[in-house]
Amino acid sequence: MQPVSAAPAPAAPVRPKHKGSAQLFENPLLERLSHTHIAWPVGIFIATTLLSLYYGFTHGFLSGASALGLFLGGLFLFTFVEYAVHRYLYHLPATTPRKAKFQYTMHGVHHEFPKDKTRLAMPPIVTVFVASLLFFIFRLVFGSWAFGVLAGFTFGYASYLFVHYAIHAYSPPKNFLKVWWTHHSQHHYRQDEVAFGVSSTLWDHLIGTMPKARE
């Protein structure tokens, strides 16, 4: 069954709705599976992190400072992947009906209904698939280092999901953490062509996509 969005992604930014949820699929089962509680994907990625570290240490693939270095390397890699996917895939220009449908289903629906807590992460079955795919890709690319890199990457993924959920579900904190809320709010409500980092603003600074100061 092909996904059928409630509305195509328009060329101009959509006006956010703070209540309700869009229907993405005509099939009731697929529609139900497109909603998930944030605890499932966060838990799956944290479990992947712990299993990777456990297997790496118990089988001699990880040890000491090298494990910490690989973990931090995987975490750093995630920050770039998060930025690149958000900017180039989730904000793919909707130049054709097919691209419009894809963009709306993948991300446009989130911009239209930013307070829909059940669509802030992938469903569990998709999360398991992504975690498994990441393992095979990292094993192929990094060899025995994969367990440390994967642990850092999936920990970054879990952190991103938690931060993103907190930004949309809770009021801004009155401390240094408010920078995340402010940065992501700029992306949703003022300038959706900038501020692509969610768990980190690093790549927005380096690539030049920080929001412009309000006049």
TrEMBL record:
The keyword GTP-binding does not apply. The chain crosses the membrane at residues 38-55, 61-81, 120-138, 144-167. It comes from the Bacteria. The keyword Zinc applies. It is found in: Endoplasmic reticulum membrane. Residues 72-209 form the Fatty acid hydroxylase domain. Keywords: Endoplasmic reticulum, Fatty acid biosynthesis, Fatty acid metabolism, Lipid biosynthesis, Lipid metabolism, Membrane, Metal-binding, Oxidoreductase, Transmembrane, Transmembrane helix, Zinc. PANTHER family: FATTY ACID 2-HYDROXYLASE (PTHR12863:SF1), FATTY ACID HYDROXYLASE (PTHR12863). This is Sterol desaturase/sphingolipid hydroxylase (Fatty acid hydroxylase superfamily).
